[in-house]
Write a structure and sequence with these properties.
- With 512 residues, the protein is of the alpha/beta class.
- It folds into 2 domains: 199 residues, 3-Layer(aba) Sandwich (Aminopeptidase); 292 residues, Nitrilase/N-carbamoyl-D-aminoacid amidohydrolase (4-Layer Sandwich).
- It is built from 13 helices and 24 strands.
- The strands form 3 sheets. Strands 8, 9, 10, 11, 12, 13, 14, 19, 20 and 23 form a 10-stranded mixed beta sheet that branches.
- The longest helix has 18 residues.
- Keywords: Hydrolase.
- This is Carbon-nitrogen hydrolase.
- One of its GO terms (molecular function) is hydrolase activity.
- Belongs to the carbon-nitrogen hydrolase superfamily. NIT1/NIT2 family.
Length: 512
């Protein structure tokens, strides 16, 4: 199983691991590898441009870059020219293009979309530095197999049309880069490419010619809510086939979060209809560790933070209703349902948890309350006091009355805590599953109530009782303005001199 994935700056101490990963990535390569002196020079000249990806603290890939004044080279150049004969003296902070000179992923970690993360990190760097484009020369490692039949132009066109698979060019095209030229003699030692290369470009649409080196902070967060159809599955593999389809879809829209409903795995209870309801739920809980591991791997592979709704879990012989925040880095946090409904306690024997935290993610500070918990305003207020920006509420409701309790309370939490609240549940029915009969849901994203937000406080909402995904984008910077300049300021205007709210067993801490 892949360990926690981290992307950060390359340091010289990483060189031995970098070299090992590079050699594994370029098996059969005729050219040389980056020397320690070359890496030291790159780090010295442009530290933020040298990006490394690690798994379990070990280097498994990297992306190396320079900033160049592109008009000095134009579209016809060689690798040796663009790197200044490997001295990197072509790098200049006054340049206008981020030029990629290396990217690779260790072969043992391919297929997890980690290369895409490196390319996305380059794009973010390009935007932050206000450079007009990312450009690089791309190898054509499979071209030698077709060189006698196709010209480079014909080969590239067939790769574009998906008639030929080229592990490098196919990947680059799928990451929004387009070919602007064929280069001859770009890298003479590259026998596989027959010395040809593609010149690829990604254009920064936010580029401003009169602004340089101004770093922007990304404030927009995209949320993908999965309104899940309850249907029977023969086993967990079949259920995950459907789950992966939705996670893949949410990821394709470049969402930062994929959110599932409470007890979405209820259909698997069908295999335990011969047991009592409480016994059946405990049997279902035995699947939870494997489900957590599968979601963790999907979060890494699809580069999206997954909020797994909730699942039954046995902890010290107690049955609880828990969920997992699977970060796309590979880290996993657990949250618990604190308030248990009468039916959950009566039929399943579920007990309430005691965990309440704000989680720091790469897309903001989030809190998670499961269904009934959102009907208790104290919990969301405690989270808001710790800086929560988005509250996620996975729920499971059977009737419209039950749904409206969750919905209206969620809207109230957004207004009184000056945050966004995203809710999603399940739809459909399970007539062959005991005590998991019918579901009602309308996923939605709610906002505070002020001039910068929709007048009805609804950012977006799904079609009721229809299986679908709801994609919504929220601007976290609007919350900062609201806290200080809103028409009313619910967080600041509380009379803490008159009353206070706190946990019985200590302070609430934000998880980093």
């Amino acid at each position: 199983m892949i360990e926690q994935v981290e992307i950060g700056a390359l340091h010289f101490d990483d060189y031995k691991e970098l070299l090992s990963a590079m050699k594994a990535s370029y098996q059969g390569w005729q050219g040389g590898y980056w020397s320690a002196d070359a890496i030291q020079s790159l780090i010295s000249k442009f530290p933020e441009g040298q990006i490394v990806i690690k798994s379990g603290g070990v280097v498994i890939g990297c992306a190396l870059s320079l900033i160049v004044d592109y008009k000095k080279f134009g579209d016809v150049h060689t690798y040796k020219q663009i790197t200044g004969n490997y001295t990197f003296n072509t790098h200049t902070r006054k340049g206008d293009v981020l030029y990629g000179i290396e990217v690779f992923i260790h072969p043992d970690y391919r297929g997890l979309r980690l290369g895409r993360r490196l390319y996305d990190a380059r794009k973010d760097l390009c935007e932050n530095l206000n450079l007009r484009a990312v450009i690089f020369g791309g190898r054509l490692p499979n071209y030698h197999e077709y060189a006698g039949q196709l010209s480079p132009k014909e080969y590239i066109q067939k790769v574009k049309n998906k008639e030929i698979y080229d592990q490098v060019l196919t990947f680059q095209l799928s990451n929004d880069f387009h070919v602007i030229r064929v280069l001859n003699n770009y890298m003479p030692e590259d026998e596989q490419s027959k010395e040809f290369a593609t010149l690829l470009q990604w254009v920064n649409v936010y580029y401003e010619a009169d602004r340089k080196n101004l770093f922007n902070v990304k404030t927009y967060v995209r949320v993908g809510l999965i309104q899940w159809q309850m249907r029977l599955y023969k086993d967990m593999d079949e259920m995950f086939s459907q789950l992966e389809y939705f996670v893949d879809s949410v990821s394709a829209y470049k969402s930062d979060f994929a959110v599932l409903p409470e007890l979405f795995n209820g259909p698997l209870l069908a295999g335990f209809n011969h047991l009592s309801e409480a016994e059946a739920m405990r049997e279902l809980a035995k699947f939870t560790p494997e489900i957590k591991d599968r979601f963790r791997e999907m979060a890494i592979r699809y580069n999206v933070n997954i909020i797994t709704g909730s699942l039954p879990s046995i902890e010290k012989d107690s049955l609880k209703n828990v969920g997992f925040l699977c970060h796309r880095s590979g880290a996993v946090d657990e949250y618990e349902k604190i308030h248990i409904t009468p039916d959950e306690a009566k039929h399943w024997g579920i007990q309430g948890g005691n965990k309440l935290k704000v989680y720091h993610t790469d897309a903001g500070r989030v809190g998670i309350l499961i269904c009934y918990d959102v009907e208790f305003p104290e919990l969301a207020r405690l989270l808001a006091d710790e800086g929560m920006q988005i509250l996620f509420v996975p729920f499971l409701t059977d009737t419209q009355n039950a749904y409206m309790r969750v919905r209206l309370c969620a809207q109230a939490r957004a207004i009184e805590n000056e945050c966004y609240v995203a809710i999603t549940g399940s739809v459909g029915n399970l007539p062959k599953v005991e005590n998991m009969d019918i579901q009602y849901s309308q996923a939605a994203v709610f906002t505070p109530s002020d001039f910068a937000f929709p007048s009805n406080c609804i950012k977006s909402e799904a079609t009721a009782n229809t299986e679908m995904i709801l994609i919504a984008e929220v601007d976290l910077s609007l919350l900062d303005e609201l806290h200080s300049y809103g028409s009313v300021r619910n967080l600041k205007d509380r009379r803490t001199d008159f009353y206070e709210l706190k946990l019985r067993d200590g302070d609430l801490k934000t998880e980093y």
